[in-house]
Amino acid sequence: MTLELVSKTQCFDGSQCQYTHRSEVLDCEMRFSIFLPSQAEKEQRFPVLYWLSGLTCTDENFSQKAGAQRMAAELGIVLVIPDTSPRGDSVPDNESYDLGKGAGYYVNATQTPWKSHYQMYDYLVKELPELVEDTFPVSDRRAISGHSMGGHGALTIALKNPGRYISVSAFSPICNPMACPWGEKALAAYLGPDKTLWEEYDATVLLSRSTERLPILISQGEADQFLEEQLKPNALKAAAEAAGYPLKLEFHAGYDHSYYFIATFIEQHLRFHADYLLHID
Amino acid sequence: MTLELVSKTQCFDGSQCQYTHRSEVLDCEMRFSIFLPSQAEKEQRFPVLYWLSGLTCTDENFSQKAGAQRMAAELGIVLVIPDTSPRGDSVPDNESYDLGKGAGYYVNATQTPWKSHYQMYDYLVKELPELVEDTFPVSDRRAISGHSMGGHGALTIALKNPGRYISVSAFSPICNPMACPWGEKALAAYLGPDKTLWEEYDATVLLSRSTERLPILISQGEADQFLEEQLKPNALKAAAEAAGYPLKLEFHAGYDHSYYFIATFIEQHLRFHADYLLHID
């Protein structure tokens, strides 16, 4: 697999880069962004935080708006920021913003027309990390985070792969997609009508069944316009309480669903991950 | 003059807001963004940094990408981020990105069809500050900064108004617009062919004639794709040296013309302005 460098610029004390590559899993060309602290240009290998973005985003939203590079450079963490769906003229799409391109939901689709390309779960769990770990000076110490649909992706991917991620966090995640309009629409389209199959991609269900105890941090703005109808953090909280799972869920007055919220608390999230990623037993 | 609140959200320790208002000077409705540190909600009055953006930008680019709110909240500085040109269906435009809407160049146009609306200099020096100072808990202690075309705007506006601004800074400014393609095109269109009139909006010319000694900080990326052809910081440096003007001009290896550069050094610029804005004799 070959990577093509699209752009590279200095950002804080490191390099902000974009690459394209052919994805076999998604059967299309994909782009991702990566931030490499300048210390990562030496021989040591650094841990990686994967960031999964929300509906309509590409690899650029988090890269340009969160300001995460400042702390990532200071802490010595590589940031990998993938796209949110397969891309290209041959990839099926839908006219709505919450299905198709920009809305892959980090699942493996089983339904026509989506199944030919929409295998974002396998792309993120297998193909992309292999590529990153073969190419860049990174270790196999991984953390994962994301926003909204990407928060759902981070939580479900971490919960489904015990031992693969050291810590997980999310901003304003879709916590219970089986029980909200965004999730019902996407899961029905990508997975079909059998709701027992949806459970495999629902953080609230997965957490209630989990035996691993991952460090989880979730931040939620109280002025978030999607809080009540779509995000449902209290469903996840109830599942965690029932299971005795030590979930750290923090509400913040006045913050909405935007990147202004992420920019404000990304330092806290990076320090949270660093506590686990950089701790060597 | 009445302001209409478009949006308001918490960002770091303060409020990020957008307002619209009718501009008499520009004869159209204008939008601007303002960041108010939470401390500014008390009775004290806080200094203001005006930020002028570059070609194609609105009030949102700096607001979303620079991460300036973190330090502004900490230092107690209000940020005012205007648009880069008059807006609306009745405002003349040009098909190119570097003339017309999004490219007001912070001048008072004298030529048809521009002169009816393109009076950005008066808007920024008079109308907008009056509105801001009448409405928000701000003092008359002002600083000004900007990027590229906005760096040109910040430098020229500060140099043309002795005593009005306490400090000025710029990222990657167009330092000598009379002698670069961007500036030649815009100044000819807005001001006509008489180049002696262009001198009133050329930072290199204005600095060489200035008697005031303002604190000026300029940051320039060495990997900036526009450095040689358009920006010409060394022309400004030569003028400063000839005039004995204490210009602080810093070059940074590896940084390009993007907001990644601004995000990296905005803390330094805000601390530079704070040294003067918050210093009470």
UniProtKB/TrEMBL annotation, chains A, B:
The keyword Hydrolase applies. Its EC number is 3.1.2.12. GO terms for biological process: formaldehyde catabolic process. GO terms for molecular function: carboxylic ester hydrolase activity; S-formylglutathione hydrolase activity. The keyword Hydrolase applies. InterPro entries: AB_hydrolase_fold, Esterase-like, S-formylglutathione_hydrol. It catalyses: S-formylglutathione + H2O = formate + glutathione + H(+). One of its GO terms (cellular component) is cytosol. Keywords: Hydrolase, Serine esterase. It comes from the Bacteria. The active site is at residues 148, 224, 257. Belongs to the esterase D family. Serine hydrolase involved in the detoxification of formaldehyde. This is S-formylglutathione hydrolase. It comes from Microbulbifer hydrolyticus.
